[in-house]
Automatic annotation (TrEMBL), chain B:
Secretion signal, residue range per the UniProt entry: none
Annotated TM spans: 12-30, 176-199, 220-245, 257-276, 288-309, 349-367
Pfam families, alphabetized: ABC2_membrane_3
Membrane association type: Multi-pass membrane protein
Domain ABC-2 type transporter transmembrane: 14-364
Listed name of the protein: ABC transporter permease
PANTHER family xref list: DOXORUBICIN RESISTANCE ABC TRANSPORTER PERMEASE PROTEIN DRRC-RELATED
Top-rank lineage group of the source organism: Bacteria
Subcellular location: Membrane
Originating species: Jutongia hominis
Keyword field: Membrane, Transmembrane, Transmembrane helix
Keyword Repressor listed: no
Length: 345, 375
């Protein structure tokens, strides 16, 4: 039994005991199937002259939290639209559970839940009615649905708000409702398209925690975001997209190993001459030096005693300096090295 | 699914206002503005004061008698002295009195419709006076016949009374209420458009969410369409009840054809809304503007704002009246409630049902288009 404390609103605390680990029976039909839940081959999607997806290949295995990371407009949402058979595409093939996905693939669709980027609920229905309505599109059994709806409300921590209308909810609570509507029928595959956009840190943590729990109960999650910290935090596999292409794929560790940066050391308020900067460039494992407004950034391609060596040199040269800190590479560094630009650009 | 479709419609305040409240408000305003216009023409209380019992007084009294003969309900004439007439005029028991001496004069206390009718009668009489005097002088034996003839003509010019082929008395303002019913039916297109938009994944996020569910789009569309037509029909029936029992409007004695006409009207209203909601990738605002233009435009052409426009269209472009849903509704209501024309009524209802079915078929065809170029 999952037990968690979540905080809803500023002072309110709700304790819930979710039943999300009680997976429905239909999960058993997945046994013996291919390990790949979703396979995308050579997918091309154009909007007029703009190539939104450029020969995209992806394989997503069962039980993963698969992160699609990339800047705005890189093709994440378009990829999801194509996978869900909402969008017409120019070329390629998409299979889910080894079956070709079409708009009429109702059996497949039953296994899928979607949390769209935009909050997609009915303003005229209460929290509980919205969840019940969307759950009902997948699950006709009223008795079972009642139980599932209660589970979903508890899972997202909306027990105190179930009679409220969406317009009465804060942005964070609305996002939770959006998630509840997508997961209430306990799908095996859940698409989450930037579910934490414009959400306060408290609700964001709650959402990310919830995603982990969903995954622990067996759901495969496809998570798109342009927040690299979130993707690093929860995703077991990550694909980095840029201009509709998958430019790198792997675990976060694998992705970081793909790049040269092993460690970044920043030294603030350091007054350095050109000669001293040249000496630093010549140091062992240093492959890039950036010096602007008395802030020195040194990139090393290894992680062995770099900070000791750098500080030793500064001491020998009697150079005064302020704060010094070391960072391991992030997914942004991966993106930066591969594309030459930052994820935030 | 059906329960929530219904709840969504009933809780949408804007839609409810236009589809339910607005026709009630409009009909009430019509009633307040000119609903009693015919009542005040029914019987005008007037008096005759004979100051001098000469030839003029006798002729005018004969003339009034002829007017009364033509229309019993128009005038109630009593003879009294001037003192009593003044007293009754002051207490508003009579609308005015004629003072008969050497000439005829009229005394009134206000300037409403009854006073205008009395004035009109007197002016018409005056204009014929010279002619009557000549007759009296030259052929006095024909005076009675001529007076009767003039009385009829004067009555016609003072007030026109419509009589139907069936002999029913017609409320001249009923056409406005028929048009209001047509408008109420056509406002179902707001409900229809809302329902259609909520199935367009390229317009609404909530529609995209519905489209990726395991329930077929057709099933959702069918549930929504059925609810939209049902709700619109219930609203229109409530409106009819208000008109018939609240405002006492005469819709005839046979409710079945009236209910069938309004059902066909609701079907065509809702289905036109569904059609506009289903075509194009325009935003919701643009679609609302189109719907507003269609519903108000068709009711305008059916005579809601300008009386007689439907007749003009019938004269110069009759096909427009055959395809304008509002004109078809008012025409069918006339055919049932005012003049009995079963063939016309059947033709109107058949056209409406056909158009409604055609719109729904197109909607289903468009809804079948399940993948979008962009969302």
């Amino acid at each position: 039994m999952l037990v968690s404390e979540i905080q809803a609103g500023s002072a309110k605390r709700t304790k819930y005991t979710g039943k999300w680990n009680k997976r429905p029976k239909y999960h058993n039909i997945m046994e013996g199937m291919s390990a790949n839940m979703i396979k995308i081959e050579n997918l091309v999607k154009r909007y007029g002259n703009l190539v939104a997806l450029d020969h995209l290949d992806l394989e997503i295995a069962k039980g993963e939290i698969f992160g699609l990371l990339g800047p705005n407009g890189c093709g994440k949402t378009t990829a999801i639209g194509c996978i869900l058979a909402l969008l017409r595409y120019d070329k390629g093939e998409i299979t889910i559970c080894s079956e070709k996905m079409t708009p009429e693939s109702y059996d497949l669709k039953r296994k899928i839940g979607i949390v769209p980027q935009e909050v997609a609920v009915f303003d005229q229905l209460t929290v509980q009615e919205n969840i019940d309505y969307f759950c009902g599109l997948y699950l006709p059994d009223r008795k079972k649905r009642k139980e599932y709806v209660e589970d979903a409300i508890t899972f997202v921590g909306l027990n105190d708000y179930k009679k409220m209308y969406p317009k009465q909810l804060s942005g964070g609570l609305l996002r939770r409702l959006n998630i509840a509507c997508g997961i209430a029928h306990k799908p095996e595959i859940i698409f989450m398209d930037e579910p934490t956009v414009a959400v306060d840190p408290q609700s964001r943590n709650h959402i990310l925690e919830g995603i982990r729990k969903l995954n622990q109960t067996g759901a495969t999650i496809i998570y798109t975001s342009h927040y690299m910290e979130e993707v690093e935090q929860i995703c077991t596999q990550i694909a980095i997209l840029d201009h509709g292409q998958c430019i790198a794929k792997g675990t976060k560790e694998e992705l970081k190993q793909m790049i040269r940066t092993g460690e970044k050391i920043t030294v603030e308020e350091a007054a350095l001459s050109d000669q001293q900067l040249e000496h630093i460039r010549q140091m062992e494992q240093v492959y890039a030096v950036d010096y602007q407004e008395q802030v020195l950034l040194v990139r090393f391609d290894g992680t062995d005693h770099n900070i000791v060596k750098l500080l030793q040199y500064l001491q020998e040269q009697t150079i005064c300096f302020g704060r010094v800190y070391s960072e391991l590479p992030t997914l942004n560094d991966v993106f930066l090295e591969i594309t030459g630009k930052s994820l935030r650009d | 699914m059906i329960k929530y479709s219904l709840l969504r419609i009933l809780r949408d305040r804007v839609t409810i206002f236009w589809a339910l409240c607005f026709p009630f408000i409009l009909a009430t305003l019509f009633e307040v503005s000119f609903g009693h216009m015919n009542d005040s023409l029914d019987q005008i209380q007037t008096a005759v004061v004979v100051k001098r019992d000469g030839q003029t007084a006798q002729t005018f009294q004969k003339f009034l008698k002829e007017v009364q003969k033509e229309d019993n309900d128009l005038l109630a004439v009593s003879t009294m002295d001037q003192k009593e007439a003044d007293r009754k005029l002051k207490s508003e028991k009579i609308a005015g009195y004629y003072l008969l001496g050497e000439d005829v004069s009229l005394t009134v206390a206000g300037n409403g419709v009854p006073e205008s009718v009395l004035q009109s009668l007197m002016e018409s009489y005056d204009s014929q006076a010279a002619y009557l005097k000549t007759i009296l002088k030259e052929k006095p034996q024909q005076l009675a016949a001529v007076t009767q003839k003039i009385g009829k003509n004067v009555l016609k010019s003072a007030t026109v009374k419509e009589v139907t082929l069936s002999g029913k008395k017609v409320d001249g303002m009923i056409q406005y209420f028929f048009s209001a019913v047509a408008m109420a039916c056509m406002f179902g297109c707001f409900l229809g458009m809302e329902a259609a938009i909520r199935l367009q994944a390229n317009v609404k996020a909530v529609a995209a969410r519905r489209c990726v569910s395991s329930t077929s789009k057709m099933k959702m569309a069918l549930a929504d369409i059925a609810m939209v037509i049902l709700v619109d029909y219930v609203f229109v029936v409530l409106f009819l009840v208000y008109l018939v029992f609240g405002l006492k409007k005469d819709f005839g004695n046979n409710p079945a054809p009236i209910l069938l006409i309004t059902f066909a009207g609701c079907l065509i209203g809702a289905s036109m809304g569904l059609l506009v909601g289903s075509i194009g990738k325009w935003g919701e605002d643009v679609k609302v503007a189109i719907i507003l233009s269609v519903s108000l435009g068709t009711t305008f052409l059916s005579g809601l704002m300008v009386s007689g426009i439907k007749g003009l269209i019938e004269k110069y472009c009759p096909i427009l009246n055959r395809i304008n849903p509002s004109a078809l509704i008012t025409d069918a209501l006339y055919s049932v409630a005012v003049y009995p024309d079963v063939a016309r009524y059947r033709q109107d209802v058949a056209i409406m049902l056909l158009m409604g079915a055609l719109c729904i078929a197109i909607v289903f065809f468009l809804t079948r288009r399940v993948r979008y170029d962009s969302i």
